[in-house]
Amino acid sequence: MAVLIYFQKKEIFKGIFKTSKKTNWFISGISLFMLQISIDQGQLYTGVLEEKGLWGLWLFFPGMISAAIVPLVLAPLWSKLDFITDNQFILFRFSGKGARILHQFRSIYVGGIVVSFLLGFHVLAFSRILEIYYGFASQTAIYTTGIILIIFALKNSLSLKFKLDVFHSIIYGISLVLLFYYLYSASGGWENTLIKFNSGNSEKSNLLPPTGLAQEWNLLFVFIGIQWWSAQLFDGGGPEMSRFTATKGKWNVIKASMTPIILQLFLSILVIMLSVMTISIQNTTGSEAGFIKGIFNAVPEWIAPFCVIGFFAIFITTTESLMNWGASFLVVDLYETYLYKNKTENHYTKISFGSMAILSIIALIIALNFDNLQDLIKVIFSISAGVAPIYILRWFWLRINAWSQLSAMLTSGICTLIFHLYVSVYPDSFRLSPLNAYSWQLIIVTTTTTIVWISVMFLTAPDDNSTLTKFRTILPPKKQLLKSFSLALLIGIGLLCLNLLLLKWVFFRN
């Protein structure tokens, strides 16, 4: 607790990791929107649409069910806290040796490893644009993207993010409008696009798997049953936490955090249409990179550079936020707290920018060892499936302690790694199973992790009363929590239904 009080009093790195001024809810909402969308979205959708058709996007759709939980329930709670990083919540919520160990472990695990993987994901996605537009070799494109990240790490600070996010959103929005116009023209209109998209497989536009495919139907049920909580960013911690604390007032926080959800709903429909048009233009069996190829085949040469700038805007916005998040864990939560205290602010500033550069280099290495975005996102969803429940429940189930969360994080990561290696060695293991490999992975990781963390929770001592009493002061009454949670789930189900109705209208207007 002394560590937390120290940081709240000193408030170092405000210009880098925290803004000292309260922000308008709309600006915070746009910043959150730019944080939650990413350059890989179109590439991911294209890869899934090519492989499975429209129903394959259920990999992402269930996340809408839990989309309103953070805005209505958890974002207002985060806004009551004055932390530099969301990792400091651990020292506020938990007590004893377990809290300190979890705080240190998560500083390294999330700040160094998880953030590097997320950055690698975006590096791979943007490198494809450089590869296709400039004709770079694959490795050259990844190296170039990594160098760009390192350069931008030198000017990365949260105090600049809000204004830049609004500016970048305008650039990205204009580029999307231009892309839609030229892709629509090149594909011969939407009706012609659907004819080409469905050629050879009339069920490609179906919202549900083809009849008779047991594995695919079972996978759909697994998506709905498990991924509705793992396709979101847990409890609102992470890069978005700083947006919640920068927004004044409960209702402003709710409006800010609902803004990206509404915008994302319509953006996802637009990107799906763009993906289908790029597939129809090429009229070949493509891949994730086919999204980029289709775009640059359709737009005029004089428009193409602006499209690249639009992609760059969303890429640098997302990656800067991730770098800022990871470096805050490594510098504020680890380096300054446990290794080198009482150094000058200039010293910590240099270490902060150095940490961002190191994260960029690790991300580059990760991108060099993956060639498929879908594989990476499935690893992330698998780890999330195991730990997301405890991140949400720790706010309401006060028996959960630091050892519980630590065991969940370790078990989920280790189980995902073991299963991934097993499938790599024995790729045909689940060919005759009623569930495919990814379904089994989600079920096994979630079940094992849940059993482990609940067991650890009851085998270890609860947090001390003083810690729990202080934590209770930020919680609303139980009835209000239950009401907000129920309303959030209803809104989430409504968003999912609206998304399906929009897709049905877009793909089956006749």
Can you characterise this structure?
The structure is a single chain. By secondary structure, this protein is mainly α. It has a single domain (23-372, 489-507), classed as Sodium/glucose cotransporter. The protein has 21 helices and no strands. It has helices spanning 2-10, 14-17, 25-36, 41-51, 69-78, 89-93, 96-134, 138-153, 158-186, 190-198, 214-230, 241-245, 250-282, 290-298, 304-339, 345-368, 373-393, 402-425, 437-459, 465-472, 478-507. Helix 7 packs across helix 16 (345-368). The model is unreliable at 1-14 (pLDDT under 50).
Summarize this, please?
This protein is an all-alpha fold. The protein has 21 helices and no strands. The protein is 73% helix and 0% strand.
Outline the secondary-structure elements.
Blueprint: H1 2-10, H2 14-17, H3 25-36, H4 41-51, H5 69-78, H6 89-93, H7 96-134, H8 138-153, H9 158-186, H10 190-198, H11 214-230, H12 241-245, H13 250-282, H14 290-298, H15 304-339, H16 345-368, H17 373-393, H18 402-425, H19 437-459, H20 465-472, H21 478-507
Helix pairs in contact: 3-9, 3-13, 4-13, 5-13, 5-21, 7-8, 7-15, 7-16, 7-18, 8-16, 9-13, 9-15, 10-13, 11-17, 11-19, 13-14, 13-21, 15-16, 17-18, 17-19, 18-19
